[in-house]
Amino acid sequence: MFLFAFVFSSYCFAATSEVAAAKQYDGLWFLGFNMNKDIFGDANGMTVRKAISMAIDRAWIVKNIVGDDVVPNGPIPPGLSGYDPALKDYGYDLAKAKSFMLTAGYPMSDKRLKQLTLLHTDGAKTVEIAKWIKRYLINLGIDLTLVPVSYSDYDAWQKEMRSGKYHMFLMGYKGSLFDQIFIGDKEKMLFHTSDCTLIPSAEAIEFLNGYDEAIARGYKPDPVCKPKRKGVGDAFALLKALFYTQGEANFTSYSSKRVDSLLDQISNTDPSLKSAREEKLKDVAGILVEDPPVVPIFYITKL
């Protein structure tokens, strides 16, 4: 799944400014912290992570680089069940961020702040965001070394992400991808579920992000696979992949017994019990704001 998430998040980033007005989101693009590094994972690590979040003017980035006006208030995008509009994160507050860094034992002159690294892909907008993050964090005494990897070289990206060498990274993830994705056959103009055995040839394949999109593009439901319209997804797939201790895209190495327990409870809750699932998802989001393993930069627009 991570391969799909990587490819689609890159594509959605390119398309975000064109379709932002629709205000439909199904993924998260974020700055991730490597929790195995002392500065983020020790007793003062949470304070440092909060300080970094407050030092980045995400509203400016969202408006001027992404081309949107929705600034994340947590890890769950609006439109997914579990989104809580009342959830408050730390906002942009440089004075408070500096105070937090001092509380954590990191004055601006601290040599440890001059050795931090940020891994990111080399897409034009990603590079621009990385450079702005570097500019913002210099106000805390952090001198980031930016490490770009080609966005088209998935193997190199995976290798660097899994190496654990870097202090921070930029990444996007669409957790609802396999719940919503359909596969179109351009030769027969039929569309299939992602787990259907009737996969078209590589030349004829087209990925379709939703039942309605497939119909709008002129495809008809395959009579064998019988794809059905999906309801509004919730954020479980997104949160579990990124923040469950054993999550497949948990490159922060974040581990919380409370989060794991809540995600296990959601996994064992009947999907028809939407209210119960939603309340637990909100609880997870609240924990991830209070103890942030990532800084949500923007929500990925649904295609």
Molecular structure report:
The chain is α/β, with parallel strands linked by helices and 303 residues long. It folds into two domains: 2-176 and 233-289, Dipeptide-binding Protein, domain 3, CATH 3.10.105.10; 179-221. The protein is built from twelve helices and nine strands. The chain has helices spanning 2-19, 38-41, 45-55, 58-66, 94-103, 124-137, 154-163, 177-180, 211-216, 236-243, 257-267, 274-290; strands at residues 25-33, 117-121, 145-149, 168-173, 182-185, 190-193, 205-208, 220-221, 294-301. It has a five-stranded mixed sheet with strand order 3-2-4-1-9, sandwiched between helices. Helix 10 (236-243) runs antiparallel to helix 11 (257-267). The chain starts with a helix and ends with a strand.
